[in-house]
Every structure is written in structure tokens, then in C-alpha cells.
Write a structure and sequence with these properties.
With 325 residues, the protein is of the alpha/beta class. It has two domains: 1-147 and 277-325, 3-Layer(aba) Sandwich (Isopropylmalate Dehydrogenase), CATH 3.40.718; 153-275, Isopropylmalate Dehydrogenase (3-Layer(aba) Sandwich). It contains eleven helices and eleven strands. Strands 3-2-1-4-11-10-5-6-9-7-8 form an eleven-stranded mixed beta sheet, with helices on both faces. Strand 10 and strand 11 (287-291) form a beta hairpin. The longest helix is centred in the N-terminal third of the chain and has 19 residues, at 90-108.
Length: 325
Amino acid sequence: MSLPRIGLCLGDPGGIGPEITLKALHEKQSLPLAEYRLFAPFDLLEFWAVKLGLNLEQLLNPSPQQWGGKIIVSPFNPRFPDFTIGQPSKANGLFSFSVFQSAIKIAEKGELEAVVTGPISKYSWAMAKIPWKGHTEYLNQSYPQAIMSFWSQSLKVALFTHHLPLAQVSPLITKENLLNFFQSLYQAINKTSVSIDEYLVAGFNPHAGEEGLLGQEEGTQIIPAVRAAQQAGLPIYGPFPPDTLFHQALDREKKMVIALYHDQGLIAFKLVAFTSGVNVTLGLPFIRTSPDHGTAFDIAGQGKAEATSMKEAIRWAFRFWSPPP
């Protein structure tokens, strides 16, 4: 069987993305066997390898006796960026976006099974006048059904909405929108090699509305959407009070929480999987994962960054990959 081709993007070149990517590859014996394609100019890799005290030649050319995978520097070779370490900048944003965009286009051609992206700075993208807030928003333009989800061994969460002010969430909670989301989520996961048996929907209001005393969204929109999904044969349940739901789903391998807004899902998820959690974009013709943390500008360039989440992002990309029969 041929090795899966996994593209690696460094993220913001002034954050910890280059460090955690190189550290993960340095510890390649703990990674799945794959063909890893690095989307970065060689001199940028060399700059960070020297800074981290790593031998780039040995890192890129592992002995076949020690490891059966491959590491390739992609032919895509942007100009060495005039980047700034430890803070966002226009150059940082232009570089991280161009690298990400190139990897996605190659994946869309069927030349990559997965793309693993290092953390970007939304502020760097804004300074570079990139018209999208982040990776998921960029992907949504071509794949409107793309879903932001978060995975760890202890908890799985899918977000009905993501980077929106809370005041804008309630109008989106309609039976039609929810049912479309449930169907898209169920279909997207069923196309991968992972499986979920139960999808547990969080309520929007305290105590899931308390029979309408604390809010109407549950009774008028969420419950009808859940019932319609069940009638269509989907294992969707709820809504459940959010303050107990995450405990109910914790350490249940085949259960996933559907959170209705960003912080409802991410506060609980990061509490239990801060260093090991992974962001997975579902509903794409390829796999896209990312560490569930930011650029950590405050420690960039100091060699202090942990590569755990990057390694987990690579491992989850491999798990989601469904090998050909």
C-alpha cells in the first residue's frame, strides 16, 4: 500500500509553527508512516533548524532502517519572508496565507490526502488584507458545508457556528439550519475512517431553556430539528443542558458534542485537551487538521514550544485518512 501524502504548512513564520513542525519531524519515529511534504522555502527551514539546534539534513533524510516514511520539501518555493518573530506582521500574514493556499490547491488536485496547518495569526492576515478570518472561513468559500470540529482522545466537539459575535448566533438557530448541519456533519464523518455513534446537541440557553422559562430556541427550533433528524435515521439527541453535557460525553470514544457557538464548545474542550486537542475541518474532499492552539508569539523563537498538538494533528490526519481497498 502506498504511503498517504500529508502536506505540512508552518503557519505564521514568526510564531511557534515552524518550531513545532520541525520538532514533530525530528521525533518522526512517533509519527505515522507517510510521505510528508513541507510547504516552505528551504532557507526558512534552515533558519529555524539552526535556531533550534537541529540538523536539517538529517531531519529531511532519515535512514530507511530507522524510519519507513519520507520527508520532501515541496517544489513550491516562495521568497524567504521578511518576517517578524514574536509579533504579527503583514509579511507574516502574506507568507502563511500563500503557503496555505498553495497546499490546499495541490490537495484539491488529488495530490495530497491531508493538509496539516500550523497556527496562523488572524491579525497578521488582517494586516496583509487577507479577506478571510482564518483557515475555515477560506475553505467555506469553496466548501460551504465545511465544519469546524475538535478532536481528542477524551472529547469530540463540532461547532454549529464558529467565529461570530454571540449576539449573531440566536437568529441562525433555526430548524432548517440545524437539520442541514446535522446531515452535513453525519455525512462528512461517515466518509472518513473514524466513527461516531451518538451526536449530543447542547442547548443554547441555561438548563436547555428550562421548558421555555429561560429561552425559546430549544422548544421552537432545536427540538423540532433533532426530531426531524431522528426521523431521517440520524443518531442525533438532545438538546441537553450544556453545563452537564460535556461531562456526559467525556471519555466516550463514540460520542460527539454539537456546540451551538464557539466558546460553548471550546472552553470545555480546551480544559481537557489543551495540549493534545486538534482542529479538524470536516466536509472537504481531503483531510485538514491543525493544532488547537495559537501562534504563542510570547515564546516564539525561544525553543520552549511543545510539539504535542502538532504531532496529534498529524496522527489524527492519518486516522481520518481512509486507505484505498
